[in-house]
Amino acid sequence: MPKLNLHRRDYTTSLVTHLSSEELQQKLGPNHDKPEKKQPRTPYLTPKAVEKRWATLDNAEAKAQLLDEHTHQQMACYNKNIENFIGTIKMPIGIAGPLRVNGLFAEDDYHVPLATTEAALVASYNRGSQLITKAGGASVMLLNEGVTRTPCFAFYDLAEAGQFVAWVVTQYDEFRAIAESTTRHGKLSDINVNIEGNHVYLVFEYLTGDASGQNMVTISTNAVFEHILHHTPIKPQQAFLDGNLSGDKKATAQTLRGVRGKKVTAEVNIEKALVEKMLHTTPEKMAEFARMNTIGGTLSGSIGINAHYANALAAFYIACGQDAACVAESAVGMTRIEVNKDGGLYASVTLPNLMVGTVGGGTSLPSQKACLDLMGLHGAGKSQALAEVCAALCLAGELSIVGAFCAGHFSRAHHKLAR
Fold it and tell me: Does domain 151-240 have CATH number 3.30.70.420?
């Protein structure tokens, strides 16, 4: 019988067995000493508050890097985007492209800015982008839009929950008027009801215009939520603005067939000779790799199947002023790679959770606006095109990384570029 590997258990126990009970309690117990340094009480961005924070931090070298002269001159721009401001960080930005997108809304050759500290990432997306462009471009289609917020209500029993639902379904027009009174751009497009025992979840779905819309739908739904609490004939025992059914900033399976944010699909057909020339492998080998990775992803319990959407999305979101935490949900999706009828390569990606916008949030901050301007995608009327570019970028990354694995170049590329 092979010997059992006890490394994990040994590692855990070795951290604490050399300590006595008193020492362990001293290290892990509460410490009620007052902090030596306190930040100013105001969270707002004013020159005086910024200086007080740095006086507390007392680190001249860090201040010189984070609150440089340019940042100091521009700091009023950040007033609506952050609390307890002390400065800005600098991240390297690279360009991937040209990436040809043949979409319903995006029709151009795009040079896509990516902010990352991971070597080899931009090179990979650049290679995939050029491959797609030489193949004639990616065909991209925005399929659906919608952002949800899901208030929840707890009642004494199922009968009360049913009576509440019976009242709710008569109030949809009223709810819509209340929700849309809080915003110039948001539209309440649907309300769904989900009953779980004596709990009721209301799924409010909105169209949010060119904003990604999380704050918009929160404010609109809260207005309806307060109206419900004041007017419902069946009073809930407990009620909360969100019951975690929306999938906000979490990977969930429900949106694979639905939508949260913008749902986009992209595809490309690539001649066999071009695959061999640029990726140094064959369509057959890439298709077999995709089949085996689909099985591996299923065995691991993956929600959706893709190689590394998160790499593209994190770099793209940071560069373009999107909410980077939404990568947790946006990176859910499906990649397919097959041999087409001509012996070439067919590849597609479908991303149902792209939380992107071209107005609001961080999109008007100086650096982020500049990145959107590089693509001509800042401002009203551009969010659908931004989502289509984002999907095409993910497709480029899937092609490049799968090609690298199939050609045996993945480790070599990281060794060359990251070291």
Answer: yes
